[in-house]
Write a structure and sequence with these properties.
The protein is an all-alpha fold. It has one domain (2-161). The protein has five helices and no strands.
């Protein structure tokens, strides 16, 4: 039973670390390279960009949901297999937050932003609604919160190797 618990903890530990590193890397790649590149090339001014942006973010949001679920599952598995070294409430709340943020993106921000950006009349000059700026602010605030929470949780997990915790 002890070796099984140790191997389960090692799997949870590795899964959390790999998932968080890949997730943060992909988020930074999208936010710091892809989106500015599309803006600089003028793609965002193209009326078809709303559909492309919706597709890009819808797919990425689903990947983020999987990543958040893996992190929370790993944290709960850690909690269940190590009663001698349980996760703090802060760590569990952080893992839960890392699932909540993609849920907000997927079912709140992305559909709302896409709906605001769709041009329904071919004869009107497209304008950016005021609400879009507020939604961008909400997105970037959540993104910073996600990166901070990921950094906190990654640091916390990294400092607790499975070999040091195993009974």
């Amino acid at each position: 039973m002890i070796s099984n618990s140790t191997s389960t903890l090692a799997i949870a530990h590795t899964t959390i670390i790999v998932t968080l590193v890949a997730w943060v890397s992909a988020s930074l790649f999208l936010d710091l390279l892809i989106m500015p590149g599309l803006y600089i090339t003028g793609m965002m001014a193209n009326p078809g960009f709303v559909m492309a942006g919706d597709l890009i973010f819808s797919v990425f949001n689903r990947v983020e949901l999987i990543a958040g679920a893996l992190v929370l599952t790993g944290a709960l598995l850690w909690q269940a297999t190590t009663p001698q070294s349980p996760l703090s409430k802060t760590a569990l709340l952080t893992a839960s937050l890392l699932l909540l943020i993609p849920l907000i993106y997927t079912y709140g921000l992305t559909p709302h932003m896409s709906g605001l950006g769709i041009q329904l009349s071919l004869f009107e000059t497209p304008e950016v609604p005021e609400t879009m700026d507020q939604l961008h602010y909400a997105y970037w605030s959540l993104e910073m919160l996600k990166l901070a929470a990921s950094g906190f949780f990654l640091t916390w997990i990294w400092q607790r190797p499975p070999a040091a915790i195993a009974p």
